[in-house]
Amino acid sequence: MLARLFRADAPSVHSHVAWEDLPDEALPTPPLQDGLGDTHLQVTTQVPLAQAYFNQGLRLLHLGWALEARRAFAEAARQDPTLAMAWWGLALARGVGQRFTADRAEAIRKALTLAEGTTDMEQRLVVAASLLADKGPANGRHAFVREMECLIDRFPQEPEPRLLLAGFLLDGYESDGRPGQGQPYAQLLLRDLLRTHPHHAGVHMAWVQAWLPSARPETALESAELLPSLVPAGSPALLAAGRLLLRVGKAAEANRILESAVAADDAYLARESLPLDVAPSADTALRLLSEGCVEVGQYRGAQAWARKLRQRVEASGGQPQAVLFAATTLVAAHLRFGFSRAAAEVPMELGDAATVAESGLRDAVRLYAKGVCALETGRLGDVERACANLDALVVTLSEAPRSEGRALCARDVARTVEVAAQELRGTLDARRGDSGRAEAALSRALRLERRLRPVGPALFCRPPRETLARIRLRSGREEKALELALERAGERPGCGHCMLLVAEAHVACECMSEAEHDFAVVLDLWRDADPHLPGLQRARGFAARGHRGRTALRRVPDVASVDTASVPRGGEAPWTVHGA
């Protein structure tokens, strides 16, 4: 939240931000709108509209919608040019990255100049923000925290200082599950705010963000369920709520909220006469809707949402990053259900303007999908060549310069491709009977996956943890496979694929009563699944026969047959991709 607005690393994701490069005074006037909560902070102004726009900017800032917050603060400054807190808000809401350092510094300079004669709280808020603007979030961290703690001590009944400090301190979790620096402190602040201000939308949004990346996302379940009623027009908050509900296994409720996020974005675009590609949340919400269908076994539904995303991207002009992310959503759906040939044929034409990172991600997705297809038909030489080409892509992308602005970062793509390369190589080694090398490759893929940056492209390969668990099952390491399967299911309790893996691991360990329970959970999660799903047939077979040992499982292939389009035979030329 607050800390992210000052960080120098711009997000490596597709996002076309309207008016980002316009100076503050040139921003168009936004309408005052309902549906964003009722946050209020009294500021020193005699102009009611300035106060109203400042409140709107503060609400949007708490919801993570920095662009609209900036417009609101800019209008507050137009309504009352002497309003110091309007310039304070403009400094906080300015875009991330080094290119906006001067703009943030200028806004804070104006706020400091105008702060004389304002209330003690306003002056201290401006001074605290100036410490970050001058020194950055790393060097100014200690001074900022001390200044905010002084504010909290002086105004114990005021929620904004505590919420702003908590937003700054939220730092997620490390790859081993340990909280980032300041994360527990932020959670304590937010827990107290939930008690004292139970209807503050910004508090519930921060609480969801605090627990979303943790091992205990259900801690914020109540806030996620409450946010749609508190901020029905705040699509970034709806997106966060839907994401958390997916993580805790409430797919139907998550889908309703994610659909409302898309609708809120569409209403915003229509009201402002803006193009589709500046919607803050719709693309991600559509991707999550597709992923949610995958988890509950709805292959057709997953395809439908992925294609709707693709249509939206094409209608907005088809920027290469957006095309890629829409395509990988469909690829991931095909791969999850075993349709590797369909995944390999997903169109990903980017045009001549594609960057090294975009071309590299496209080539990697094609190579990986074709490698999986070759693996399923026994063409191990082609799989080896796909792995080698993926390894070469990792080197090329790792050596590329860092991206500027919001361009997709080649190094982020390299990390994602390396996970896919190691997952494919591990599966290949297992097919060759070398379980030791397979385990080493997949363990490396798992470590790399845990270190992926959340601002990078989404992983497009099969989950390395599930692949490793299945390989351990085949190599007779049932207890270790069960441990991995339980860990994965704990992260995605609403995913039928994960629970099916747990059930089969319990069967392998001769824990038949546990397996019976697990298969019942799978059938419940997949009650509306597509009937042809092989895993669904296995679960129904087990339920029909009862727990009578390993033979109770119907031997349905893990991978469904795909279309009959011709593919290269083993021994032919290595895989090549357009533009490689």
Structural key phrases:
580 residues; mainly alpha; Serine Threonine Protein Phosphatase 5, Tetratricopeptide repeat; 4 domains; 0% strand; Tetratricopeptide repeat protein; TPR-like_helical_dom_sf
Can you tell me about this structure?
This is Tetratricopeptide repeat protein. InterPro entries: TPR-like_helical_dom_sf. It comes from Corallococcus coralloides (strain ATCC 25202 / DSM 2259 / NBRC 100086 / M2) (Myxococcus coralloides). With 580 residues, this protein is mainly alpha-helical. It has 4 domains: 41-156, Serine Threonine Protein Phosphatase 5, Tetratricopeptide repeat (Alpha Horseshoe), CATH 1.25.40.10; 207-317, Serine Threonine Protein Phosphatase 5, Tetratricopeptide repeat; 318-462; 477-555. It contains 26 helices and no strands. Helix 2 runs parallel beside helix 4 (84-93), helix 3 packs antiparallel against helix 4 and helix 14 (282-295) runs antiparallel to helix 15. The radius of gyration is 25 Å and the shape is globular. The two termini are 39 Å apart. Residues 5-12 and 552-580 have low confidence and may be disordered.
